[in-house]
Structure formats: C-alpha cells, structure tokens
Write a structure and sequence with these properties.
alpha+beta, 8-stranded antiparallel β-sheet, 10 strands, about 65% helix
C-alpha cells in the first residue's frame, strides 16, 4: 500500500517525475526527494518501498487503462449514469403525457362528443320525420272521411259554392298524398353513428331538409283541405234555415215596407251563400235575425226620471254656435218592467252602440214641458213618449221627434 501511495504521490507531481526519471542517477535523486517528502509528513518510508513505487510508476503498474468501447461498456456507462438521464426522461415523459392529456381533453373528447351528438340529432330527426309522415298519412284518410260526412249534410249539386269548396278539399288531399309518396321515394336516412357521421352528415342533412320541405307542403295542403271543409260546414250553418227565418219574419211583419226589407235581406243572404261569401252571408243573416227579433218585441219608451240622472240635455251643433239641439234621455221598458238594451245610432258620429239609455231628439217645446214637469216636484210625471208594438220596427212617438239620437251627453 505504501508503494501505491508512492505512485499516487508521483502521479500528483507529474512534472517532477518527468524530469527525474530521465536517467538512473536522477532516479536516485527522485527517491531521496520522495523520502524527504514523506519525512516532512512524519512518515518513515524505506528505500525499498520508494524504489518499488518508482518502478511501478515507470511500469504503469497501477495506471488505469479504460476498457475499449463496445456494446457492453456503453451499456455499463448508461447504467452507471442512469440517475442523470432517467430524471430527464421522466420529465420528458411527464411533459408528453400532459400535452397528450391536454390535447385529448381540449380537442379529441369535445370532437367525439360533437360527433356523437350530431349522429344522435340526425337519427332523432329521421325518426321524427317518419312519425310525422305516418301522422300525415292518417290525416289524409281522416280528412277524406270528414269531407264525406260534411257533404252528407248538404247538397253539393245544389250549391256551386259547396261544389267549389269540395273540389278544393279533394285537391288538397290528393296533392298531400302525392307529396308523401315523393318523401317515401327519397333515400332513407339511417346507419349514422359517431364513427361515420363526419362523412355522412352533409348528405343526411340535405336529405332530411328535402324531406322536411315536402312534409311541410303536405301539411299545408291538408290545412287547405280542412279549411275548405270548415267552410262547407260554416256555409251550411249560416245558410241553413234561411227560408224558415224569412217566413217567420214575414209572419210577424205589420209595418208597411218591412216585408220588402225582409225579402231584400233574404236575397242578399242567398246570393252570398251561392258565392261562398261568408262575411256577407253572416251579415245578411244577422240582419234578418235582428229584424225578426225586433218585430217580436213590445216595449214603451220612457223618460228617465231617477236621482242623479238628467231627464233632458241640449247640445250646440258643430256647424252653429247659436243653435241648440234638444234631447230627452229615454229608455226602453217592457210591460214586465225589464229595461232593454237597444242598438242606437248616434247622429253626432254615426256609430252604433248598444245602449240602455240614449238621448231622443225633440223640439224645444217638448223639452221645456219635461223640464217644467220635473222642476215642479223633482220627478217626471208623464214619462212615456213612445211605444214599439209587435210587428213593427219603428216606435210610435207621442212627442214631436225626428227619431234621431245621441249616445253621449
């Protein structure tokens, strides 16, 4: 071991060795210097040990000679330095794992969910369209039955309007059936899942939109057919009983000129029924019904005489600042004491209102008589100013009046 230490000392003093080992004489001097070096350190080293160290140094007995590089030595180096490179690889793997996880979470998974949702949506739309088509098929059949039932209640041959409406309903049903057949001939939309939705979605959506457009048109055709059937039934209801209503009104009529009015209203209603003009038919029928109901009414026209309610008013007409129009506030009362509401046409604005009280235009003398009557004891003693008899449309008045009225005062 002392010899090895000598070699180690010589190795650290390489410059000294290179100079001293040039010859044997110089080698002895080197040995002396080494002995002195050890003596300075308090170590006693024999000449033989120093000589052995010098010879070992010369022979490079204790020198390290690295092995030749090959696969085994390379693997050994890798194993020896595993702590250093394993840490770097671990960090790299962690970074790669984080990048992969982020990419999958931010891009892959949302894309997969989107494809799955799109496939589910397309499948749902396709299923809904199949159900809708089945419903429209059933509606075509039910609409046909409804038309037959409606035509069983009226005579199609006797009314051009009903014939036109029936043809419109049949055309709507036939057109709807044709469109539904066209839908069934289109390629079906199916077999779509998350794996193939990207490739098939565009074509599937185009076919779904095309089918949906045809279904919308078929539904509109059926709506048109149903509207025509509803019109047939409405025409039947409005036109039905016109003859009996006219006969009942003519039976009640006692006033001259009323029969001509009844016949004119009936003619208007009949013409509108033939033309399928429901608004005109409805208006004419309502007018004829009103005439009939009015002819059956009996009531007296009385001046209102109640606390807080005026019995008469005067108004200044719009075209004059000095003239005055006089009105008595009246109401219609039946024999049983029931107050009626009647349609009143105001001479001020021409509007018709249903009123229980209105202003009846009279002359100044009649107005003054009522005013003095009420001032005497606070009530109107002679309240009745007219009466409407059964069979008449126009009341008979016991005071001078034009029959004009106002609805506001």
């Amino acid at each position: 071991m002392l010899a090895m230490d000598v070699v180690d000392t010589l190795r650290h003093q390489r410059s000294l060795v290179d100079q001293e080992l040039q010859s044997e004489d110089r080698e002895r001097e080197l040995i002396e210097k080494l002995k002195k070096t050890y003596a300075d350190q308090g170590l006693a080293v024999s000449d033989e040990v120093v000589a052995q160290g010098v010879r070992a140094m010369r022979e490079e007995r204790f020198a390290y000679r690295p092995p030749k590089k090959n696969l085994k030595t390379n693997l050994a180096h890798v194993y020896v330095n595993r702590g250093r490179w394993a840490k770097g690889i671990a960090i790299l793997l962690i970074v790669l794992a984080a990048v992969w996880a982020g990419y999958r979470f931010l891009y892959v998974l949302p894309a997969e969910r989107e494809r799955t949702e799109l496939a589910r949506e397309l499948a749902g739309r396709a299923g809904a369209q199949q159900e809708r088509m089945a419903g429209l098929r059933a509606r075509v059949e039910s609409t046909g039955k409804t038309l037959q039932k409606a035509l069983g209640q009226v005579s199609e041959a006797e009314s051009p309007a009903i014939r036109r409406l029936a043809d419109r309903a049949r055309l709507g049903m036939a057109t709807a059936a044709t469109r539904l057949d066209a839908v069934e001939k289109l390629p079906a939309v199916g077999g779509i899942d998350a794996a193939n939705v990207a490739a098939k979605s565009e074509g599937a959506q185009r076919r779904l939109n095309e089918r949906n457009g045809l279904l919308d048109l078929a539904q509109k055709d059926l709506d048109t057919a149903q509207s025509a059937i509803d019109s047939i039934l409405a025409l039947k209801d409005e036109a039905g009983g016109l003859d009996s209503l006219r006969a009942a009104a003519l039976k009640e009529a006692r006033e001259p000129g009323v029969e001509e009015k009844i016949q004119a209203l009936y003619a208007n209603a009949s013409t509108a029924a033939e033309a399928g003009d429901f608004e005109t038919l409805r208006t004419a029928r309502q007018a004829l019904q009103y005439v009939h109901d009015t002819l059956r009414q009996e009531y007296s026209i009385q001046i209102v005489s109640r606390p807080g309610t005026p019995s008469g008013v005067w108004r200044t007409p719009a075209h004059s600042r000095t003239a005055r129009n006089y009105y008595l506030i009246v109401e219609a009362v039946t024999a049983s004491g029931q107050r009626l509401k009647l349609p009143i046409t105001s001479e001020e604005d021409g509007k018709v209102r249903t009123m229980s009280e209105w202003g009846l235009r009279v002359d100044q003398q009649a107005y003054e008589q009522v005013r003095r009557d009420k001032e005497a004891d606070g009530i109107v003693n002679r309240k009745q100013v007219g009466a409407k008899k059964r069979g008449f449309l126009t009341p008979e008045y016991s005071v001078p009046t034009t029959g004009a009225a106002i609805a506001e005062w």
